[in-house]
TrEMBL record:
Gene3D superfamilies: Aldolase class I. The keyword Flavoprotein applies. Keywords: Flavoprotein, FMN, Monooxygenase, Oxidoreductase. The keyword tRNA processing does not apply. InterPro entries: Aldolase_TIM, NMO. This is Nitronate monooxygenase. It comes from the Bacteria. Pfam families: NMO (PF03060). GO terms for molecular function: nitronate monooxygenase activity.
Length: 317
């Protein structure tokens, strides 16, 4: 069993230092509740939901667990109405990303506030804003990536910069070895996204899960390819036909190969285009391989699908 510091667990009301990162459309209430029931911190990704849908998901988590959970909001988007709905529901933990948490810190006074930073400067800014926990996101991470430093060097630098505020580490953590490594660097726990894409409770299309499990380390590419809906935000995704064609064309910002192609349709009949900021989810049909497959370099270490509770248990002992 990994032995770990208790500060962040006490602050967040969790038993083990494992947090499920907000993996976009794959982050379901069932997943968040399962992680929380296993002693970790489950998270809902609510940036792109309306307030009514946010409330529905929060209440569904509460029907499934009485343990603490988090809601995540990306500050690069208008989130005031959704934040108001979350606070009215008295969510215990709010996590923020991609912006200055000072803009919401005063409002999140009755909940714990977590902010994800990609640099030491950004971590210091979060500490000055009064956040309760900082997530240091290394460059290896999947999805949208804020900074350029690797987890190995960023985590101890952030720990030193924001002490005594507890730090969670993100980027490259796939198993108990990775968790033990970031604890040795001074982090109080791990913030894992890619690992939970393979959880049975995640809204990950089977083809997406299979791509994650089949990936090598080099297949997770840091790019700006899938920017539809979130321009100018670098991210890490698995190499696929869209990314390969775009790179072969010289990575143009306009008139990209297949620009405007509808490559998939979701269960509600909504079209999704090549280069959209959208992952394959259950119920989709079409050329799902061409959609964004966000994943970190830790995908190269993953080889199994498992319930979230089993993933948490495997991480800590």
């Amino acid at each position: 069993m990994i032995r770990f510091p208790k500060q962040v667990c006490t602050a967040l009301g969790i038993d083990v230092p494992v947090a499920q990162a907000p993996i976009g459309s794959a982050a379901t209430p069932a997943l968040a509740a399962a992680v929380s029931n296993a002693g970790g911190l489950g998270t809902l990704a609510l940036t792109w939901t309306d307030p009514d849908e946010a409330v529905r998901r929060i209440r569904e988590v509460r029907r499934r667990t009485d343990r603490p959970f988090a809601v995540n909001l990306v500050l690069d988007f208008p989130i005031d109405d959704v934040l108001d709905a979350c606070l009215a529901e008295e969510v215990p933990i709010v996590s923020t990303f991609w912006g200055d948490p000072a803009k919401v810190a005063a409002r999140v006074k009755d909940a714990q506030l977590i902010h994800t930073a990609g640099s030491v400067a950004e971590a210091r800014q979060a500490a000055e804003a009064g956040v309760d926990v900082v997530v240091a996101q290394g460059w290896e991470a999947g999805g949208h990536v804020r900074g350029q430093a690797s987890t190995l060097v960023l985590v101890p630098a952030v720990v030193d910069a924001v002490a005594p505020i507890p730090v969670l580490a993100a980027g490259g953590i796939a198993d108990r070895r990775g968790l033990a490594a970031v604890l040795a660097l001074g982090a109080q726990g791990g913030w894992l996204g890619t690992r939970f894409l393979t959880a049975t409770e995640a809204a990950t299309h089977d083809s997406y899960r299979e791509a994650v499990l089949a990936a090598d380390l080099e297949d997770a590419v840091h790019t700006r390819c899938f920017d539809g809906g979130w321009p100018d935000a670098p991210h890490r995704a698995l190499r696929n036909s869209t990314l390969t064609r775009w790179e072969a064309a010289g990575e143009p910002r306009a008139e990209r190969p297949g620009e405007g192609d509808v490559v998939a349709t979701d269960a509600a009949g909504n079209p999704w285009h090549r280069y959209d900021d959208m992952i394959p989810v259950p119920g989709m049909t079409g050329d799902l391989e061409a959609l964004a497959h966000y994943a970190g370099q830790s995908a190269g270490l993953l080889r199994n699908i498992a319930p979230a509770a089993e993933i948490v248990a495997d991480l800590v002992g």
